[in-house]
Amino acid sequence: MIYLQLLWVFFRIGLFGFGGGYAMISMIRMEVVDNYQWMSAAEFADLLAISQMTPGPISINAATFVGFTEAGFLGSVVATFSLCLPSVMLMALVLALFFKHKESEYVKRPMAYMMPVVAGLIIAGGILMCDRETFTSWLSFVIFGGTVAAQLAWKANPILLIVISGVLGWAYNLF
Length: 175
Known about the structure:
2 domains, extended
């Protein structure tokens, strides 16, 4: 029974929780503290602190924590899966519609306008990362220049470039 409750609660939160993880906090609190009394308000405050400290989205961390405290490992899987399920279903629907109508002018035209915007946002994010806190040593500049050159000259695999950059940075900090 607890698994069905977790599934239903976190599915609804995932379905109606617009605005990201922080926007879902009030919905999670209402269900977890007020409706189901799975934890007290003080325990929920602790849950928020733990969810903020751990890597990943706060809502997913909170769902995982609630699921684990209520029903162990399987409960954490059910709660986390249920929170993510509406987004996955919506993306599957959007992708199916996109691929079905990808040759339509109503799809092509907006995509043509979005591509430069997305590229601009990615470039802006990269430029914002170019500061003294990010480039802490000469190796940072070498890695940056090398990855840009490898990408432009040889169209190198980005994942390979990330792995190589990580290994170089790790090795530099090790020695």
